[in-house]
Specification:
This protein is an alpha+beta fold. It is built from 14 helices and twelve strands. The chain has two domains: about 180 residues, no CATH class; about 170 residues, no CATH class.
């Protein structure tokens, strides 16, 4: 039997103990991977929302507690529109409505400014701008609700006619609906308020100059958002998920490390005489240390493989829920899987160090006398 085969088979002499250690580590890795996939998906969706349609950046309330929940006075739309370098601006009101128990995104926008949202109308026509109960429904929303042009949707106790089906390529927008801004303001008691302002700059204008001008002019009133990093200044949700992911990583290292130490110490304890025989026939301390460390890594690498699969499966099961499927688009990046694998390797190294050192320091004479 080769040295490599020896290392692979040894950890499974006590299958129950090894399986319990693997399961414990795998759960931690699965959580890390699942959070990573969800976080990357939220960041990608947020980036698309911030770059909605033809806009170059977004304006929202400064120092607000949340991005989509904050409101600003609609008069700021005209102020931003009149800023040097700005070509066009439109205020958008966003409301999360519970439709049949599932969240449904409603967006209010002026009909004549739909072009700034880069809406690609697939069927039908745009909604009216005279207070009619009309809306255009996103393609994903149309599929999930099984609604088509000419059908109606009941919102706020009123029936709204679907005049068109659109697609933007943005998951959140395509899962919801656009209607007249004034209509949504009245329905949600947000007269004269918008959630954010989409801004398009002139061709010869510099993005940094325009955003700096707005933030300087309306200091402590408005803030500009050009990327996810800027978004985190307004809403700490994504940062909180990142923090939670790292906290769980540390917890997985701690708990997993303890589990591996226990498993490997018991393995060394049970194989004391065997290790004495190996040292008696010429195995060096370094070779014994390598064997035990290798066995520890075999356990954690197998746990990493199982944990990654569990994490991916868990995310896909969560997305089957109607309340989640329309909000999160999973994004699978190599960094997420590398992080999970890295944590597993770290657990293996930390958990195997002491047992490996203890095994390498065993005296052959004493080990051979051990019963």
């Amino acid at each position: 039997m080769s040295f490599f085969t020896f290392i692979i088979k040894n950890p499974f002499r006590n299958k129950t103990r090894s399986i319990l250690a693997i399961v414990g580590i795998a759960i931690g890795i699965a959580t890390i991977v699942a959070l990573g996939i969800v976080t990357d998906g939220l960041k990608a969706s947020t980036e698309n929302t911030l770059k909605a349609g033809g806009s170059d950046f977004t304006v929202t309330k400064a120092n607000s507690g949340g991005f989509f929940s904050s409101t600003i006075n609609q008069s700021y739309v005209d102020d931003v529109q009149n800023t040097d370098g700005v070509k066009d601006a439109v205020g958008v009101l966003i409301n999360t409505y519970s439709l049949d128990g599932s969240p449904f995104i409603l967006m209010g926008i002026r009909q004549d400014k739909l072009g700034l949202a880069n809406i690609n109308l697939q069927e039908g026509a745009v909604f009216g701008d005279n207070g009619e109960n009309e809306l255009i429904l996103g393609k994903r929303g149309s599929q999930s609700l099984d609604k088509h042009v000419g059908d109606t949707i009941t919102l706020f106790g009123e029936d709204f006619k679907i005049t068109g089906i659109y697609e933007t390529g943005n998951m959140w927008e395509d899962g919801g609906a656009f209607m007249d801004l004034a209509k949504l303001q009245n329905l949600t008691d947000n007269q004269g308020k918008v959630t954010m302002i989409f801004v398009k700059i002139q061709n010869d204008a510099q993005l940094s100059d325009v955003t700096s001008s707005i933030e300087t002019t309306y200091e402590n009133e408005l803030t500009t958002i050009k990327s996810v990093d800027d978004f985190n200044r307004v809403n700490q949700g994504l940062s909180s998920i990142d923090t939670a992911s790292w906290a769980i990583s540390l917890l997985a290292i701690l708990i997993g490390g303890i589990g591996v130490v226990n498993t490997m110490v018991m393995s060394v304890y049970e194989r004391t005489r065997e290790i004495g025989v190996l040292k008696a026939v010429g195995w060096k301390d370094s070779r014994i240390l390598t064997m035990i460390m290798g066995e520890s890594l075999v356990l954690t690498l197998l746990a990493a493989f199982i944990g990654i699969i569990m994490g991916v499966v868990a995310v896909n099961l969560i997305l089957l829920l109607p309340s989640m499927g329309g909000f999160i688009e999973p994004v699978y990046t190599s960094s997420t899987f590398i992080k999970g694998l890295g944590v597993a390797i770290l657990v293996g190294v930390i958990g195997g160090l002491y047992p490996a050192y203890r095994a390498s320091r065993l005296s052959p004479t004493e080990a051979l006398r051990y019963e």
